[in-house]
Structures are given as structure tokens and as C-alpha cells.
Design the sequence.
């Protein structure tokens, strides 16, 4: 029962389980793609919220991201994707040695059995809307409890997402309560679980990516602010692009494997470009005058706090690294780089006036 | 019964055949009222599919557990293993998911179905379980547009839509009855020659599908037609191309021709239209490249990919598609599912509350102030029994020693013994009920006459204020305006600021005062919302109270004529007044709240608005120059 039933071959082609549409084969929607890639290059940018019309490829694009992500190193088999054991929280260690062992003789947390490192792709966790809190945060291993009466922590999706991406499609339809939990964890980088007398705290640093259609349900303003970048997408109106979308979709649906292979060179190229950008990111320099102008921009737009400046400068740095063809630095960020990222970094931080006739994009453009 | 014995429903039948050929079209949605033969059609469709194809009915009252799957507790307790039970979505994998009443499904259920359709799988991440089940299914659904619309996100994932099912003409109806009487019992189970032939055709078409060609010009025509019709998103193009290909395959062609394109236009593009195309362009002029002003992002893309000159053939194809759309469209484009605003809800997913509404699910929580869900609580406790018993025993042993148990070792809170079941605080499950919103505020705004612009501005301001708080209070806001012969929904019940912004940008004003139609529309909205779980509605009527156009659109004498006529009132005027009075009484009796905001300048007021407030059993507020804030305050007082 727990295994997959065999789908009909013709249906299987539709949305093949483990093959997603290649990122580089997605037509248009450049802003969304750029926002995602910059978060790969610098996760501190703080995630992306993609909002837009239905049927514009939001979820396809985010799900396609996994295939172009570079690898990370982690301790072999570690469920939290940690690279060093120093990453283990003090509270957890105490629990394991004192409380956990004394109760039933077994440890609560499976500790990494070796210190060897292994390479894994950057994890992308795709949160289903029906997920319950215990699976998101982790809970006691139900099987161990049933069969052996053993108390053991079964990490949840937040553990899986550590050092990777957490994606919520239709984020405006997710239960408020779960949204709060996710935002708390995303902000602190730690997940704390208290259940059945165990107390666990594990690292959960991830890039939060959300997508949704504003007409399906309004998004809490507080939620939007928490995302670093906000990409908006609309229906593609260019006929040639639309023709290309249909052709590629048909080709993919007919033979996903062949289609993936055809796009592999482009995928490979993008992967290399991302790795290169990551490598030179620390050599990107933000000159004082550019920084000043970015701050002026935020002031002109009346943005409260410093998150606006921080995000726009980080995004501009990542953008400069992504664009740079130089083998190594130093690379100076130009005000043009700031300009490219200003809309996505700032449009959701303007004070909201629901019936304001001037669109927030327009306001940013004017301030520029 | 044969496929051909189903009379009428021709478009629906055609759509189902195409779906059978290419299941990646996602599904067929059809507007069908009770008794239109949809269940017969569903059974006949099942018979057309290969043997053993799953055919799963989705009941409207399904729970989330049964829909996506969960722990099979019986097996878990018996074998001590985690056994995941498949939900209905997974059971429909490789087959058909049949929903009678797409628009009546619970929002949470719609969301799950949408999610499964977009992933092609169901992911269970709940109650300690993690599993993935394949769920590629064809959705076959019906809806009755009188009960509100299907959620846009869901409808958009369904490739083929039949928004007008007509089997209305008497001859066809008589034929239905005649054939039903003639049909032997259990006739569906009998394999007829016709059904066997159709199955063979579908099988052959499936094999041919990948080798059928569609030209670039044809694809351009589809894209251009979709743009002209204001179709949202880019999915429609893909579906239209696939529908044309499936139609060609079924017709035994190896390349898509005009007929195939027309079928695609009718089943894919027309139902998604949000506007009718502009009047025909001059044939000499080059076709417009862009229907709308491209957004900045698009401009950027355009620079990257300069557009080649359009080939000659393409405008003709677009025209072909558009005329097919117009031919298939019996009435106004406003009756289509993506344009009609009636009952379209800007939903915010499931809003759960603690005490009233429809029971949706049990969640972990504290007992205080909630209703205990006993069975879910016991189920939650069950897996831990063995572990707890051992801990408990261990504790007793320790307690038997000279030293008391350190508090760290205690199980959380106190473990209460209910017969032999050990239940802890964490097991407690309480009932959550579904309650979509506190109150629906319907602004009914008089857009006739000279004060119209001012009133509208005030109303817009008040709508904006309310929407800003709407999230907190779970309220919804709608706006109806009335002028000329009719009342019009400008903003359907919504919590969406985005949507409101878009819809309220242009507000027409001037003309007659069809007050009764407007109240009617507001009342209608209240009833629809109630069906959708919003119990309370308040109408905020902003008017001078002088209706002069009846429900039928008949115009009575205006104020000046009435003054001239002295005490003698024209009959039409009297009728309109009676109508208004009766209607108001009905609305009041139905429990719909009302606030009448009198916008008339004082020296002209003749007391119509206070009278209307009395009829409606509502509050009367005199605010000739109301600011948005004052209006909101007045409404607060009423609520």
C-alpha cells in the first residue's frame, strides 16, 4: 500500500515524478528566474516571493531550480545536512547524554556515525499544503515507538531543508499557524521541538521561496515583508515566446528524458556560472558612493528600517558576481546593478495604500 | 446504452473523447444542472476507458485524511508497522476523478486537488507520516453556475471546459426520455459494437498522437487568439494545442487542420475568454504585435528576442479561431466562468475556528475553550502506548527506590489513565470548525445623478479602509453600484486588496436609479455567501433613497415630475415604491443587516432614505459629505 501504484504510461509522461522541466528551457519570466538564482548565490538575500497570474509557470520554475543547484558537503548521512559537528546545539547534546539515555537507554538523536564528508545536491524541500506541524518540525519516530516502545526523534521537513531551499506553492493558502512557525524558524535559523518529554533544537537555515496568485487569496502584509525579494509575473504576451512555450512543453511531455538531455549543455553552463558567482562573491566590493545612493533611494521611497537597503545591496552584489566574467576579483558594484535589483527588492516594502492608483513598481521606477 | 444514445451534451461528449485520447489535458469541467444527464455521461465515459481504469467519485463532504491519505491505524497496531493508507487522489491515479459539484467543494479540498494536479502526485506530510503517491488523474467535474463559480486556480488546470451545456430543446428532451425508457436494464454494462469501436478509435488515436504535427503558424494563431480574448496565463495555449492534436488524432489526420483548431477554440479558449476581441482589423495593416502594453519585464525580453515578421497565414488562423469562439458563445462573454463575478470569492484558504461552522478537522491543542475530538485523541495516543507503559513501569520501579523521581524523568504533564489508555497533553485533539468570515459588507452605492462621483469616492475610501482590516476580522467586502437600468457587481465578496484595486479603478456614473435591483443583487450575494459559510451580511446602502427604476428596468417619474404632479403619484412610481418596500421587508426578514447612508444634501431631502432604512430595519446615518473614516465608524456601530 505504501508503494506507488503503477500509473498508465500515457499519464506518466504528463508530469513525470522525478523529472522536472529544465530551468534553462523556461521561456521568459526573467525577473523570477534572476531572483531565484541570486538567492542560490547568496542565501542571505532572504528568499523570494513570487506572485502572479495563474498558469505563468511559477511552480514549474521553482521546482526546476533543484536541477541547477550546486552540491554542498555534509557529514555522511547526517539528517540535518550539517558540515561540522560544532553545529550541534548544546541543549541537544545535554538532552542526549543525560535525559535521553537515562530514560530508555537509547539516544534521542541519531548522531552521525562518521566524520566523513559527502557531497549532496542543495536540498529543495517542497512543502505540501496539507502538511501538519509535526511533520514540518519533526516529532517522535512513530515506528520506533510502536514496535520497540523507543523514544527517538524523527526529524521533519525543516531538518531536511537545512542549508537548502524550502518551497511553498500557493503560500497564501497555507494555514496561518504553519506560516507563523515557518517564519519564526526562517528568522532564527533554529527549529525547537518539545514533545513526549524530549527537547530538541537543530539548525534550520533555509531560503524560503513562496509562490501564489493574489486573486486566490490575499497575503498577510507581514508575510510579504519577510521575503528578501518579491518577483511579480504576468502572462507572457509575446506571440513567439508563447509558441516556444507550447513547443517545449509538448516535447517535454512526450519524452521527458530526451528533452532533459537536449537541454543538459545549457543546464551545465548555468551550473558553472552559479558556482563561479558563489566563488567570487566575497570579492565583490560595494563602493561607498553606490551604497550612499542605495540608501538615498530607500529614503526617497519612505521605507522603514534597514531591511530594504540590506536586501537591495546584497542582491546587487550577487547580481554583479553573477554577471562578472572575470576569473577573480575585486569587482566593483555599480549603481546600475542596484537599479536592476531595486524593484524586486523594494516593491513590497513601500507603505501600502490599497487604492493607490500609482503602482508600487511605478513608484520605484520614478524614485530611480 | 450507446455513447450516441446520450442526447444533447455534444460538446461535453466531444471534450471527453479528447480527454480520453490525451489525459494530459487534465480534465473536463462542464456546467450542468441537475437532471442534464451528467451522471449517465460519466458512466458512459468510464465504459470508454480501458478495462481496469480507476474511476473514483469524490464526495463533497470528504475529509482531508480520506482525500490525501494517512496512517492506517488498524494495520499499524496489528503489525506494529507504519502502513500508509492511500487517499482518494492516489486511488484515482491513472484514471478518472469524478466530482459532481466542483463549485461546492470545500476550499481546503479544492486546494489539495489543485496541488495534486500540479504535481502529478500526492505528498503526505502529516501525523508523523511521510509518503508520496502518484496521482495522475483526469478530472471530470460538473458545476452549476447558479451556486457560484469554480475556483479559478482549479478551473485553469482543467484543460477542457464546457461552460454551456444545452440539451434544452424539447425534441432532444423527448428523445432522452424515449431512449431511457427503451434502454434495457443494466444496458451500460453490456458492450455494444459502438462502444467497442469508439474504444478502438481512442486507442489508435493515442498511439498516433505523438506523430501528429501542428505548424508554427497554427501555434501563433492560437497564441494571438488567446491574447485577443484576454485569457490569463500561458497554460491555455498548451491545452489548446493539445486539444487540436487530440482532435486530429481522433479524426485520423496526421496534421492539425482548421476543424481541429475550431474544436480547440471552442473547448479551451472560449471558456477562458475574459473579453471579446476588438472589431476586425484592416486586412492591409500588419497585425498588432501586442494587445496590451507590455510590462517592463516583457520589454526586456523583447529586446533579447527580436520578433521576426509575422507570416501571412497567422492572422487568418487567428480569425478562424475567433469566429469559432464567437459561434460557440451563445450570450455575453460575461457569462463565462472566468469573467462572471457572481460568487467569485477571494478566498484565503481555510479559516478555522473553535466553536461554530462545519467540522473540518481535529488539531492538536489545549482542551480549554475547545471541543474535544475523542476519536482523534485516542488515535493520536495509540502509537505511543507501548513506549509510555514502559516508561511508566520504569518510573514506578524508580519510585519504589528510596529516592523520588527527578522531575526531568517525568512524562510531560500528568499522564491520566483512561481505562488502560495512557493519554498525555500532546495527544489532545480538539475540533476545528470551518468558518470563512465574520461578516460580508456589501456596499450598495448609488451611481446615478450628480452626487455620484462624490459618493463613489467615499465608498471607495470606505472599502479600502475595511479591506485593510479585513484580514484581522475575516471580513469580506463587496461593492454593488446602480445606475441606468441595472445594478452591477463591481467587486465580488473579497478580501483581496489586489483584486479590489483592479476592479474599482473605473466606475461608471450617471443615469437612472434602479435601487430595487441593487438591493436584490446585494441580497443575492448575502444568500450565496451564507451557502459558502459566511453567516452574516450587512448591506451599506449609500443613496438619497429615491429609486426611480423598477426591477424590470421600467422607469418611473423622476423627482421633478413628481413635484409637479403634486400629491397625485404616477402609477409606475407607486409600483416602484411598493416593490422597494416589499423587497426591503423580505431582506430584513432574511436577517440581512442594513445601514442606509443618506448622501442627499439637506435642503433637498424628502425623507426617502430614512424610510428605506425603516423598511430594511436598519440604521440610518445622515452623512452628506462623509469621509471614509466616518462611514467605517457608522458601520462599526451597526455591527
Sequence:
Amino acid at each position: 500500500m505504501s508503494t506507488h501504484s503503477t500509473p498508465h504510461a500515457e499519464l506518466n509522461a504528463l508530469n513525470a515524478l522525478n523529472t522536472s522541466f529544465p530551468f534553462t528551457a523556461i521561456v521568459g519570466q526573467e525577473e523570477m528566474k534572476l531572483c531565484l538564482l541570486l538567492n542560490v548565490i547568496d542565501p542571505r538575500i532572504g528568499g523570494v516571493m513570487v506572485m502572479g497570474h495563474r498558469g505563468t509557470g511559477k511552480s514549474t520554475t521553482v521546482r526546476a531550480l533543484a536541477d541547477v543547484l550546486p552540491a554542498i558537503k555534509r557529514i555522511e548521512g547526517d539528517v540535518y545536512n550539517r558540515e561540522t559537528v560544532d553545529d550541534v546545539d548544546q541543549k541537544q547534546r545535554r538532552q542526549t547524554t543525560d535525559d535521553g539515555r537515562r530514560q530508555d537507554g537509547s539516544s534521542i538523536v541519531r548522531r552521525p556515525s562518521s566524520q566523513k564528508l559527502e557531497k549532496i545536491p542543495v536540498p529543495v524541500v517542497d512543502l505540501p499544503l496539507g502538511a501538519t506541524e509535526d511533520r514540518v518540525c519533526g516529532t517522535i519516530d512513530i515506528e520506533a515507538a510502536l514496535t520497540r516502545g523507543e523514544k527517538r526523534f524523527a526529524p521533519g521537513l525543516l531538518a531536511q531543508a537545512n542549508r537548502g531551499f524550502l518551497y511553498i506553492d500557493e503560500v497564501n493558502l497555507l494555514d496561518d499557524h504553519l506560516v507563523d512557525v515557518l517564519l519564526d524558524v526562517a528568522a532564527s535559523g533554529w527549529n525547537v521541538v518539545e514533545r513526549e518529554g524530549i527537547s530538541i533544537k537543530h539548525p534550520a537555515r533555509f531560503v524560503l521561496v513562496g509562490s501564489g496568485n493574489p486573486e486566490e487569496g490575499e497575503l498577510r502584509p507581514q508575510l510579504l515583508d519577510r521575503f528578501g525579494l518579491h518577483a511579480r509575473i504576468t502572462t507572457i504576451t509575446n506571440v513567439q515566446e508563447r509558441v516556444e512555450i507550447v513547443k517545449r512543453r509538448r516535447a517535454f511531455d512526450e519524452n521527458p528524458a530526451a528533452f532533459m538531455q537536449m537541454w543538459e549543455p545549457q543546464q551545465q553552463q548555468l551550473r558553472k556560472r552559479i558556482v563561479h558567482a558563489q566563488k567570487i562573491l566575497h570579492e565583490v566590493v560595494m563602493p561607498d558612493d553606490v551604497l550612499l545612493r542605495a540608501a538615498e533611494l530607500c529614503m526617497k521611497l519612505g521605507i522603514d528600517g534597514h531591511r530594504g537597503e540590506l536586501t537591495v545591496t546584497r542582491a546587487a552584489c550577487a547580481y554583479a558576481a553573477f554577471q562578472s566574467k572575470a576569473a577573480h576579483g575585486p569587482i566593483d558594484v555599480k549603481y546600475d546593478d542596484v537599479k536592476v535589483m531595486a524593484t524586486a527588492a523594494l516593491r513590497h516594502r513601500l507603505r501600502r495604500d490599497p487604492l493607490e492608483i500609482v503602482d508600487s513598481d511605478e513608484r520605484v521606477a520614478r524614485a530611480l | 446504452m450507446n455513447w450516441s444514445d446520450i442526447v444533447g451534451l455534444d460538446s461535453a461528449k466531444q471534450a471527453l473523447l479528447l480527454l480520453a485520447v490525451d489525459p494530459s489535458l487534465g480534465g473536463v469541467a462542464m456546467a450542468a444542472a441537475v437532471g442534464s444527464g451528467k451522471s449517465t455521461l460519466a458512466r458512459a465515459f468510464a465504459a470508454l476507458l480501458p478495462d481496469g481504469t480507476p474511476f473514483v467519485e469524490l464526495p463533497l463532504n470528504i475529509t482531508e485524511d480520506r482525500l490525501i491519505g494517512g496512517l492506517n491505524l488498524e494495520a499499524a497496531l496489528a503489525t506494529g508497522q507504519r502502513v500508509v493508507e492511500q487517499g482518494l487522489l492516489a486511488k484515482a491515479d491513472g484514471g478518472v476523478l469524478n466530482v459532481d459539484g466542483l463549485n461546492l467543494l470545500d476550499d481546503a479540498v479544492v486546494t489539495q486537488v489543485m496541488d495534486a494536479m500540479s504535481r502529478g502526485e500526492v505528498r503526505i506530510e502529516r501525523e508523523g507520516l511521510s509518503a508520496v503517491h502518484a496521482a495522475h488523474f483526469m478530472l471530470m467535474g460538473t458545476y452549476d453556475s447558479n451556486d457560484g463559480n469554480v475556483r479559478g486556480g482549479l478551473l485553469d488546470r482543467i484543460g477542457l471546459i464546457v461552460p454551456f451545456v444545452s440539451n434544452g430543446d424539447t425534441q432532444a428532451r423527448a428523445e432522452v426520455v424515449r431512449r431511457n425508457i427503451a434502454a434495457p436494464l443494466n444496458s451500460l454494462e453490456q458492450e455494444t459494437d459502438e462502444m467497442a469501436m469508439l474504444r478502438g478509435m481512442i486507442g489508435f488515436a493515442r498511439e498516433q498522437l505523438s506523430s501528429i504535427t501542428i505548424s508554427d503558424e497554427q501555434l501563433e494563431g492560437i497564441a494571438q487568439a488567446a491574447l485577443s480574448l484576454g485569457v490569463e496565463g500561458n497554460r491555455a495555449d498548451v491545452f489548446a494545442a493539445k486539444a487540436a492534436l487530440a482532435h486530429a488524432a481522433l479524426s485520423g489526420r496526421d496534421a492539425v487542420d482548421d476543424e481541429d483548431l475550431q474544436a480547440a477554440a471552442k473547448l479551451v479558449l472560449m471558456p477562458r475568454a475574459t473579453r471579446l476581441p476588438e472589431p476586425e482589423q484592416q486586412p492591409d495593416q500588419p497585425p498588432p504585435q501586442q494587445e496590451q502594453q507590455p510590462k517592463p519585464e516583457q520589454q526586456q525580453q523583447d529586446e533579447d528576442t527580436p520578433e521576426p515578421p509575422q507570416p501571412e497565414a497567422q492572422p487568418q488562423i487567428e480569425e478562424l479561431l475567433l469566429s469559432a469562439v464567437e459561434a460557440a458563445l451563445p450570450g455575453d462573454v460575461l457569462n463565462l466562468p472566468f469573467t462572471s463575478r457572481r460568487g467569485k470569492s477571494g478566498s484565503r484558504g481555510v479559516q478555522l475556528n473553535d466553536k461554530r461552522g462545519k467540522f473540518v478537522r481535529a488539531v492538536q491543542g489545549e482542551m480549554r475553550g475547545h471541543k474535544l475530538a475523542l476519536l482523534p485523541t485516542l488515535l493520536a495516543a495509540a502509537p505511543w502506548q507501548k513506549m509510555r507503559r514502559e516508561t511508566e513501569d520504569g518510573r514506578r520501579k524508580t519510585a519504589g527506590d528510596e529516592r523520588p523521581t527527578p522531575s526531568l524523568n517525568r512524562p510531560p504533564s500528568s499522564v491520566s489513565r483512561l481505562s488502560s489508555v495512557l493519554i498525555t497533553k500532546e495527544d489532545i485533539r480538539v475540533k476545528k470548525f470551518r468558518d470563512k468570515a465574520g461578516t460580508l459588507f456589501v456596499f450598495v452605492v448609488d451611481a446615478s445623478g450628480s452626487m455620484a462621483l462624490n459618493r463613489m469616492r467615499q465608498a471607495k475610501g470606505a472599502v479600502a479602509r475595511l479591506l485593510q482590516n479585513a484580514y484581522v476580522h475575516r471580513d469580506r467586502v463587496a461593492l454593488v453600484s446602480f445606475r441606468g437600468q441595472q445594478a452591477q457587481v463591481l467587486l465580488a465578496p473579497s478580501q483581496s486588496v489586489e483584486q479590489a484595486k483592479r476592479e474599482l479603478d473605473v466606475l461608471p456614473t450617471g443615469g437612472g436609479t434602479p435601487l430595487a435591483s441593487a438591493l436584490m443583487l446585494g441580497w443575492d450575494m448575502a444568500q450565496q455567501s451564507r451557502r459558502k459559510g459566511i453567516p452574516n451580511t450587512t448591506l451599506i446602502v449609500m443613496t438619497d433613497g429615491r429609486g426611480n427604476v423598477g426591477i424590470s428596468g421600467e422607469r418611473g417619474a423622476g423627482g421633478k415630475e413628481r413635484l409637479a404632479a403634486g400629491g397625485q403619484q404616477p402609477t409606475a412610481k407607486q409600483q416602484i415604491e411598493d416593490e422597494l418596500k416589499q423587497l426591503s421587508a423580505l431582506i430584513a426578514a432574511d436577517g440581512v443587516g442594513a445601514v442606509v447612508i443618506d448622501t442627499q444634501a439637506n435642503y433637498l431631502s424628502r425623507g426617502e432614505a430614512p424610510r428605506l432604512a425603516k423598511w430594511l430595519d436598519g440604521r440610518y446615518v445622515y452623512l452628506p459629505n462623509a469621509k471614509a473614516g466616518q462611514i467605517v465608524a457608522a458601520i462599526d456601530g451597526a455591527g
In short: The first helix of chain A runs from residue 9 to 12.
